Amino acid sequence: MKKLLVLGLLAFSLVVAAQAQTWDVYGQVRIYNGTCDTGIGMNGVTVILFDTATGDTFSTVTYTDAAFMAAHNLTSPLGIYYFNDVPYSPNYWAQVIPPLGVVLATDAGQGSWWNANPRQIGSNPYRCFLMVLQGGNFSPHTIGYWKHQATVAVTGQGNAQVPAELLQDYLDMIHDLFDTPPDFPISGVTTYNGGPMTPQSMITTFNLSNGGAAGMVNKTKKQLLAMLLNVVSEYVYVYDTVSVDNRTISEVIAFAADMIGPPAGANISTAHTALDYLNNGMIVPAGWIPAGYGLIYYGDMEANSTVAALMPETAILLGNYPNPFNPLTTISFSLPAAGAVDLAIFNLNGREVAHLIDGWREAGSHEVTFDASGLASGVYFCKLAANGQSAITKMMLTK
Fold first, then answer.
1. What are the pLDDT digits (tens) for 85-106?
2. Which whole-number Å values give the CA distances from 200 to 149, 192, 233, 371, in the listed order?
3. How far is it, in rounded angstroms, from Cα 234 to Cα 236?
4. What is the pLDDT of residue 296?
5. Deepest of 20, 272, 345, 399, by most Cβ within 10 A of its Cβ?
6. What per-residue confidence (pLDDT) applies to 371?
7. Which long-range contacts (CB under 8 A, 24 or more apart) does 177-180 make?
8. Is residue 119 within 8 Å of 127, Cβ to Cβ?
9. How far apart are CA 120 and CA 52, in angstroms?
10. Do 138 and 281 form a contact (C-beta atoms < 8 A)?
11. 67 CB contacts (<8 Å, ≥6 apart)?
12. pLDDT value of residue 112
C-alpha cells in the first residue's frame, strides 16, 4: 500500500512538473482609442508567437471571446488571440501582422517601447497591440489608366506609370490578399486559370463585352478589378469612408463581390455604379451600399514581418522607415543565404535614379540609408534582387 502511494505521488509530481513547463500567452488587437482597454477589437488579424532561442513559431488569428473580455475588463470581445499550453520560455516575442490598410499606432512621447511590434513577452503573458486604420489618401485611377498600364506591359510600346514588374506584383497581391471565400475567387478579377492575374488577363477582363445577359456582370468585374488595383497600389485605403452615409471601400468591395455572384445579385447595377463613382474619385450617395457588410481585414503582410527577418526562408525586402520620408530613409532587408545583392531605386517611369548596393552580402539582416536630397517629391520604388529572387517596395518622398 505504501509503495502504491509513493508511485501515485510520483506520477502526480510528474504531471505537475509537465504542466509547469507550459503556459498560456494571450492578448488583444484593437483599433487605437487612447488606451489598451477601450476601442473595438479587430478580428481576423494574424498574431505570431516565436521563441528567439529555439526558433519555435506559433501563429493564430484573432477572434471573438466575450468571456475573455469580461475576465480582463475590456470593452470589446473582438480581436482576442490565445496561445494555449505552449512550452514555457523566457524568450518569447509576440508580433501582430498588420493587414492591408492597417498600421501600428505610435506615440513618440511614450518612448520606443510603447506599443512595440514585435514585443517581448517576459513574465507577463498578456500583450495588447493598438492599430490605426489608414485613410485619407483617396486618389483612385480609372479603368482606362489600368488598361493602359497592362497594354504597355504586354506590348512594350508606350509609356507606363507603373513598371511591368510592379504591375505583376500588384496582381500577385490581389490574388494573395483577396482570393478567398466566401465572395471570392472571381475569375478575371482575383484569379485567372487558378493563379494570379497577369497584364494579359487584365486586358482580357477590360475588353469583356458590356452587352448581352452577362453585360452588367462584366462591367462590374472591370470596375472591381480597377478598385482592387487602386487598393494594393495604395491609391486608396480599404478603410477610406467613401459614401454620404459613411460606408467604406472595404464594404463596397464586399458588396460588389457579393452582387457579381454567381448568381448575380439584384443590386448589381448599383454595385457597378458605386465602383464607377469611386474609381473616378467621386463620393457615393447615401443608401447605395447596404448595411451588414462590415469591415473586413483583407490579408496580412507576413512576408514583411520581423519574424521573417529573424528566420528568413526567402529574400525579403522589409521596406523603409520612415515612410513617407524627407530626405533620408533606412531600407532594411534580409537574406536566407549569402550571395550577390542588387538594390536600386526607380521612379514612376521605371527609370533608375539610385543604385545602393551591387555586391556580395552575408546571410541575415541588413540596412542601408537612402538620401533622396537630389530628387523631387513623389513615389519611388525600391527593388531588391538576390539569390535569383526579387522584391519591390513603394516609398513616398515628401519635401
1. 999 998 899 988 888 778 888 7
2. 11, 10, 19, 37
3. 5
4. 66
5. 272
6. 94
7. 177/100, 177/232, 177/298, 177/299, 178/228, 178/253, 178/298, 178/299
8. yes
9. 10
10. yes
11. none
12. 52
- Three-class SS of residue 40? coil
**What does the pLDDT read at residue 158?**
92
Q: How confident is the model at residue 307 (pLDDT cuts 50, 70, 90)?
A: very low
For domain 312-397, give the CATH number: 2.60.40.2550
Neighbours of 172 (CB within 10 A): 15
Which residues have C-beta within 8 Å of that of residue 60, sequence separation ≥ 6? 46, 47, 49, 81, 82, 83
In 77-230 the beta strands, taken as DSSP E runs, fall at 80-87, 92-97, 102-104, 119-120, 126-133
pLDDT at 309 exceeding the cut of 90: no
Of 170, 138, 135, 45, the C-alpha closest to 99 is: 45
* Cell, residue 70: 469580461
- C-alpha angle with apex 351: 346 to 353, nearest 5 degrees? 55
Q: Check if 10-133 and 312-397 are the same fold.
A: yes
CATH T-level topology, domain 10-133: Immunoglobulin-like (2.60.40)
Looking at the chain, which runs of residues are DSSP E strands?
22-31, 46-51, 57-61, 80-87, 92-97, 102-104, 119-120, 126-133, 316-321, 328-335, 339-346, 352-361, 364-371, 378-386, 389-397
Instruction: Look at residue 7 in the predicted model and tell me its pLDDT.
Output: 43
In the beta sheet, which residues pair with residue 354? Answer: 345
pLDDT at position 313 is 45
pTM given for the model: 0.65
47 in Cβ contact with 25 (< 8 Å): no
pLDDT value of residue 113 = 60
What is the Cα–Cα distance from 28 to 10, expressed in whole angstroms?
39
Residue type, 78: L
Domains of the chain by residue range: 10-133, 143-279, 312-397
Q: What angle do CA 367, 322, 253 make, to 5 degrees?
A: 115
Tell me which amino acid residue 64 is: T
For residue 225 the three cell numbers come to: 478589378
Residue at grid coordinates 500500500: 1
Q: How many CB atoms lie within 10 A of CB 135?
A: 16
